[in-house]
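Escalation from tier 1.

The customer reports that the assembly of two entities below gives different structure tokens on two consecutive runs. Tier 1 could not reproduce it. I'm attaching the input and our single run for tier 2 to review.
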Amino acid sequence: MRIFNVKTIIVGGSATGMGVAARLKRNDPNATIVVYQEKSYVSLGACGLPYFVAGNFSDPNNLIARSITAFEENGIIIVPNTQVFKIDFENKLVYFDNKTDSYDNLVIATGATPYIPPLVGVELKNVYTLTTLEDGIELKKAMQNPNIKNVAVIGAGFIGLEMSETLSELNKNVHLFELEERISPNAFDPEFSQFIKENLEKNKINVHLSTKVTEIKGTDQVQAVVLADNSLIEVDAVVLALGFRPNTEILRNTKLALAENGAIIIDETGHTNIDHVYSGGDAATSSNYITGELIYSPLATVASKIARVIADNIANKPAKFVGSIRSAVVRVFDLGYARTGLGEFEAKKQGYQIRTVLIKDKDQTNYVNGQTDLYLKIIMDIKSRQILGAQMSGAVKAMQRINTLAALIWSKVPVDEALEQIDLIYAPPFARTTDILHIALAKLNK
Amino acid sequence: MRIFNVKTIIVGGSATGMGVAARLKRNDPNATIVVYQEKSYVSLGACGLPYFVAGNFSDPNNLIARSITAFEENGIIIVPNTQVFKIDFENKLVYFDNKTDSYDNLVIATGATPYIPPLVGVELKNVYTLTTLEDGIELKKAMQNPNIKNVAVIGAGFIGLEMSETLSELNKNVHLFELEERISPNAFDPEFSQFIKENLEKNKINVHLSTKVTEIKGTDQVQAVVLADNSLIEVDAVVLALGFRPNTEILRNTKLALAENGAIIIDETGHTNIDHVYSGGDAATSSNYITGELIYSPLATVASKIARVIADNIANKPAKFVGSIRSAVVRVFDLGYARTGLGEFEAKKQGYQIRTVLIKDKDQTNYVNGQTDLYLKIIMDIKSRQILGAQMSGAVKAMQRINTLAALIWSKVPVDEALEQIDLIYAPPFARTTDILHIALAKLNK
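Tier 1 run:
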């Protein structure tokens, strides 16, 4: 299908924006596509920043999935270093510098920025966040300084965990602060929060739970963080990892519908409440595949899928995003922690009557080198007998198992005798004859 | 549920037999269970033998999953070193030594033995098979002899592959002979046979395809193998890996129904055609989950599942084995090869109209150490759009992905827009945002 003389403006050149651009151009080689991008680069794989800081590689350009030149060779117009500061939905105009540009279709893919808490001292030198290439380069350079010995990481979500590992590998003494009483409470159930805590502590991270940082002390440079009980912990730098806020400031007080946190509300086609205006990725809501609920889940995997959906719909190829089950994984030192679907608390809140199992087993036979411990939790809806969620921890090599559970959640099959007998691969270096998944399913099916 | 005064005799003390024994005792602590076992041990994990020979561990008892003593402490009677040589189904008697024993229920779990071809020279010293603990100990000892430099492995199925690797790690010069024109033709499609061949050759294994060994030459010791074209290849030892034959000689010319290859025909409850007589594992048939066909698939994973089914049925807890999709994996040096479901040829033979994709991609991001190549083939039924089979190769750490496909086959979900969007885990050390599975599903769904 081809669209003639249709111009699509994309605001934002990260995963969602460039994903839409690339697929739309494939869908319709004649489409006019203009991307306005704040940065000098597009397609940053921001998930790789902690690994860049940790020194896994030295050229930050490795994080650029595809260059501006490559997109331009493909006929996509990119306007870098340019911030769109206003959108006139009525007249279909975007405003930047002292100019405007007009669109037939608009894709708002402005992403999200790290939440900066309103703390005294948050503006001090050596207070970092990690979202842009510049952030990564600056933090990496700063951490080369041997005088920076003690670093506070505020927030124990996935990025806080990755940063704790990264800084520890750079020989920093890390203090990890979390306001909640456990690690990554939005991703994991308490058992797994506890496993992660133990792993962090084994690796000499100072974990401070139920701890509120109320001030960052220092004159010019950071000297300490102040806690709610007025105690001080001396640190030389602070990394903020308190989650993300959608970049939608310019859309406040417009007719565009926003969720409570500022995310642009989209339907399953990626469409907003305004005709010809689409959004997706970290700037927008998404939906929960299981419950249908509108959620905010700024994950790269969601962004890449919604980008396809938007591009197809703009090209008149009807497409729907069916939702996310928030499948995610994080590596903390030598172990992985993965989750998919609903957590126990979430499932109960949704009104499900649930049965859960938590199994400890091994990933492979004992007689081939490399056997490691696995933990697997599964949450089942008693009524439908469908799996609602699962969480796992173990060696990196064992983590793909969670995708088997994601597939079962996705397929909505009941836990029954047939599922208990699911035929999984076995050979001594890979698994045991009866996998941890079999043990868990058999226990659920009792 | 309890059964009173019911005696179950189990012939054979490997995976199936001991699996039935253990679960039956759990089902009914008062059950009388007697196991007749040819060997001095039970519960051998024979899959581990190549790793024992390779020197991954030195104590062969590591391969014994559970000792006779442990079973006996549990109230299971084990009669080791005893061969049942006749069964009288009419009078419900088993014959051994010069005695008989009578049963209410009988489980024939005699397993299988390696096929020994009728070759001149097959009785020579230094001609080995690898199924029993004694085989393993003998072969390992023999291979310590530095005068054994060149070894022939006959048969390029999974055990032939594992043995080629094992012998190569013991610094032997290995010649691998396969009658068919490609590696593991019953497990893999030609593309993957070729990948394995390239890997073997990269690792200095001499691969001889479409090659029939017609004689083993030697006086006392092996000196060479003779090929169909009368050429000679000098070897100092031979390992036979030509597949398995069910151990059912004593059942020929009885009323027990056997398949063409001698496997005991069982139904989905593990029951044979004779009342109160069950069988399973390597001695018996099983069924294909997709096609319902009776198959012979001597895999440990099938044995352990059918054992549960038999034990439950004997204990009056109705249970059914729903079939196998022949999920299997083999490691060859540093790479894994996995398969599940129907192969392309098999699917066509079954009359399916199929679409296939073969994708090459990477297992994780490029900027974290350890990125490796993956190949994934999926076979889809065009009519139902269900996945019929999949094959994969890649690093050991990437292989669990095949279980995601096994789960999709098991769930019988169609390949559609929703499945294309299956939510899989992503983080830089584990995957790419768009996994090879997404790429394959999108291509299938075009």
